[in-house]
Amino acid sequence: MPFYQRLGEVPRKRHVQFRDNGTLLTEEVMGLEGFTGNESILYHLQSPCRVMELGPFEPIERREWVPEAHGHRHFKTFDTAPAGDEIGGRRLLMWNDDVEISLCRPSGSMEYFFRNGEGDEVVFVHEGSGTLETIFGELSYKEGDYVVIPRGTTYRFRPDGPQRYLVFETPGLIEIPRRYRNQYGQIVEGAPYYHRDIHPPTELHTVRERGEFPVKVRVRGGYQTYIVDYHPFDVVGWDGYLFPWTFSIHDFEPITGRIHQPPPSHQTFQGRNFVICSFCPRKLDFDPMAVPIPYHHSNLQSEEMIYYVSGNFGSRKGVEVGSITLHPSGLPHGPQPGLAEKSIGLHETHELAVMCDTFHPLKLSTFAQELDDGKYWNSWYANADVESDAGLTSHL
Ligand SMILES: [Fe+2]
Question: Which residue of 51, 54, 79, 357 is most buried, as measured by CB atoms within 10 A?
Answer without folding.
Answer: 357
